[in-house]
Design goal:
The chain is an alpha+beta fold. It has 2 domains: 6-189, BirA Bifunctional Protein, domain 2, CATH 3.30.930.10; 197-238, SH3 type barrels, CATH 2.30.30.100. Helices cover 20% and strands 33% of the residues. It is built from 4 helices and 12 strands, in the order βαββαββββααβββββ. The protein has helices at 16-22, 68-88, 157-171, 184-189; strands spanning 6-13, 31-38, 56-62, 93-96, 100-103, 106-116, 122-129, 197-202, 205-214, 220-224, 227-231, 235-238. The strands form 2 sheets. A 7-stranded mixed beta sheet has the order 1-2-3-7-6-5-4, sandwiched between helices. A 5-stranded antiparallel beta sheet has the order 11-10-9-8-12. The model has no long low-confidence stretch (mean pLDDT 95). The structure holds biotinyl-5-AMP (BT5). Biotinyl-5-AMP is lined by residues 15-17, 38, 41-45, 47-50, 57-59, 99-100, 107, 110-112, 126-128, 130, 134-135, 137, 140, 145.
Length: 242
Amino acid sequence: MPGTWRRILLESTGSTNDFLKEGLLGLSDRTVVRAVRQTSGKGRLGRTWESPPGGLYASILLVPPPSPEHASRVALLIADIICGELLRAGIGACVKWPNDVIAGDGKIAGILPEYGTFPVPWFVTGMGVNLAAAPSIPGRNGPPPAAWARFAPPPDPDALLDRLLLELDEAWPDRTLDPISDRAEGITGRLWMSGREVEVVRGERLDTGIVKGIDAQGRLLLSTGSGMIYLDSGELSPVRSR
Ligand code: BT5
């Protein structure tokens, strides 16, 4: 089992990912920061993560980082671990590839992996879980935000973070290994929109097909009119009615 996590608790910060990235030279491997409040939480691709009171907002730092091909799969692993916590609490949940968790019909958690090489090679992954409350995001294109409290009494953020870190270490004890190769089948069984028709947008490209699962590299398998395709990244949504 890897060593202990060095914990930092902040009352408030802009973004826990940014906190770690800005302090890279002074922070050690396996630092985890949790903020009670985030004032400018981030999603992917410059999007915003709304951080209502009582949620879990935390990021972990790994120095040295996992290899670039493994790094993005860590988000999928953490999403699956959070999904498992919800299922154990009796809440119907699934993993929305590549980095979200859905409970009921709403988005309850999102994961943000980031990595770079300056000033040292680093890897930071943030996780946001709506516990006490979900924000209202009018006009959101995708599952509406949902909070744990809608389904069951939510856990304490620190207690939940402890369990997530423990499970992360159990599932991925050695960062030179692939984080998800053993779990692809399990994640496929908990995949949002499995067997249903979706659209996946990546930049200018749009693919439509039936979700078949994920492979050992964490790629989404989509059965399209022109055969099976394997997607490394993208934004998945139910197919718009025509
Ligand atoms: C994500 O991005 O889902 C990654 C979210 C990561 C948040 C954590 S919190 C701790 C750490 N520090 C940070 O600054 N970030 C990480 P993405 O897949 O791009 O989804 C973003 C979209 O989700 C937004 O554009 C909104 O539509 C929606 N959204 C924003 N806040 C939400 C919330 N609290 N609950 C559900 N959906 C939300």
